[in-house]
Amino acid sequence: QVQPVESGGGSVQAGGSLRLSCTHSGYLYSRLCLGWFRQAPGKEREGIANRDTSATRVADSVQGRFTISIGNANTLYLQMNNLKPEDTAMYYCAANYGGRCSGLSAGQFGSWGQGTQVTVSP
């Protein structure tokens, strides 16, 4: 099974922006449930955004600052603006081959990337 591959993480100061990318060869992204998650040290994995053919869902914690989208060449993006130190975490892309998302839960996703680190300094 091919895994998603994330990129675009890095270190920024508070208030800055980053755009994460996720590619996943062999699948038509527009037909999948695709999501972004993050996990900070000592904390549980948090679903922050996902999309399928019917809707886009964004967690309250990042609403208005993060945007999930699909671009050309089967790439999933997470645009992150006005970053805060509490956004510091490892960010993961995930795919649900069933096509429809069910909330922001992690259990519905069967394929995960290795993650990309985002660090936000005060």
Would you give an account of this structure?
It is a single chain. This protein is mainly β and 122 residues long. Helix content is 0%, strand content 47%. Strands 2, 4, 5, 6, 9, 10 and 11 form a seven-stranded mixed beta sheet that branches. The chain is globular. The N and C termini lie far apart (39 Å). The mean pLDDT is 92.
Count of individual beta strands: 11
- Give the N-to-C terminal Cα separation: 39 Å
Helix content: under 10%
Shape: globular
Which sequence of SSEs, written as H and E, runs from N to C?
EEEEEEEEEEE
Q: Helix- and strand-based class?
A: mainly beta
Low-confidence regions? none
Key terms:
mainly beta, globular
Short summary of the structure?
The chain contains no helices and eleven strands. It is mainly beta and 122 residues long. The chain is globular and about 40 Å long.
Task: Furnish the topology, listing elements before pairings.
Blueprint lengths: L4 E3 L2 E4 L4 E6 L9 E7 L6 E6 L4 E3 L7 E6 L3 E6 L8 E8 L14 E2 L3 E6 L1
Parallel strand pairs: 2-11
Antiparallel strand pairs: 1-3, 3-8, 4-5, 4-9, 5-6, 7-8, 9-10, 9-11
